[in-house]
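ENTRY TYPE: paired fold submission
RECORD: A
CONTENT: sequence, then structure tokens
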Amino acid sequence: MEVLKAAQEGVVKDFTVIQSNEKHHAIVDRYGQVLGYRYRINDKLLETLSKSTSKLPRKRVKAGVRGGYPTRHYTVWRDYALVPRESSEFKRDLPASRAWCNENANLFRYLSNGLRMISPKVYARYASVKPYLEKEMKLKPLCGAWFGAAINEEVTGSTSTHLDWGDHGFNCVVPWGEYEGGGLILWPLRIVIKLQPGDAFFFMGSLIAHNVHEVVGVRNSIDLFCHKTMLTWKDRCKKEEEEIWKAKIN
């Protein structure tokens, strides 16, 4: 209740602040579970991310539950659909959206290797979907190990506290822009983690209520994610496959 009240009132004065630096930093609970992990990416990857995003079609600001700023989702998911599909925003922005994914392939590969280091189990869970996705739907993940990205642009001030309730495992956030402040508040952990341009931060966005706090200037970011429904779809496909094999054997 104290954390909920603090989130509602925006009170963070007693929270632990983790400053940005060049070293890796892990947030681990008492059971050894990694809850968050931060490290730096190189300047070339960040420059490519910034330039490729600036070439995307302009998007109007739409006020939502997380704040008023342009955001788009380039992903493969099964949101309100029976089978996986590319998001409407990805298809609407073609061919620019496909070019954006291709231009940032090295970044996604680099971050995917980071995920494999941080949580081999989550990495393997994501990877298990790919064969079914390619075979059944002729699709593939758009962002390395993750199936897609939310692209958030021109964030100023603070965003609303929220959970990425539809996601599974680890989200990965990479910010860039000209700004100060903009710490990511992890409310249940009572932590503010400072993220500067070029920091990559992995955390469980579906379990840890969070928001970006007091951006001075303009902050952009990507948030890589895997929608839970992709995993349930894969599990269903695997079960049907096993039932077919059992029927053949019997």
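RECORD: B
CONTENT: sequence, then structure tokens
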Amino acid sequence: MIDRRFKLMNTNIDNLTMKEALEEINELLNDGKYHFIVTPNLDHIVKLEVDAELQEVYQSADLILTDGTPLIWISKLYKKPIVEKISGSDLFPKVCELAAKEHYKIFLLGAMEGVAIKAAINLRKKYDGLQIVGTFSPPFGFDKDEGAINQIIEMINAAKPDILAVGLGAPKQEKFIFKYKDQLKVPLSLAIGATIDFEAGSVKRAPKWMQNIGLEWFYRLLKEPRRMYKRYLMDGVYIFPIFLKYFKSDK
């Protein structure tokens, strides 16, 4: 395994290119253990500062890949430049391409009812030979229902996927993967946020030029202002004191 992990503010980062990350993923899929990947963005950094459970999740993650151009900018200010942005929405299509080539099986968990099924249909069209062995869109509040969780675990285990892609929103998706990783018995789990919606076409992703200049968050705010207002405009401002706190301590 390539060891390029370093500390950035309140998390570790695996400083890899997309190609290197995919090589690592291929290794993780074949070592007989259960692994998971997280992709921190500014919102995660803010949550990590106050959420002890999420901190435990991140400490246990096998790969921590940078989601978001603003974190790239911050890394340069720390004199620890991150080589490439690897968001869940960019990584997952590459994982699907790898899965189609290597015959890995995928299960999609998340999004609204019917959306994961549509995403599966689209992905099979895009990647010839891709095996999506199951989809499920859990009802609201399922994470508080032990019976519902057990049913989901049984459903996933019956499908025997190699890769579990979880799009439940942060930090619910990361906590779900971490808590039930050993019961799910899936070689690799990915927290992919809104990626299932993007692949289904139910939510449009920001244009490439906005992604490249770090304005994908602004596009999502314009598209879903009521849902994204708190995350980006209220909670997001806390990144500034967090940045200063760790910047000073790093000197």
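NOTES ON RECORD B: The mean pLDDT is 92. Residues 88-102 form the longest helix (15 residues).
STATUS: closed
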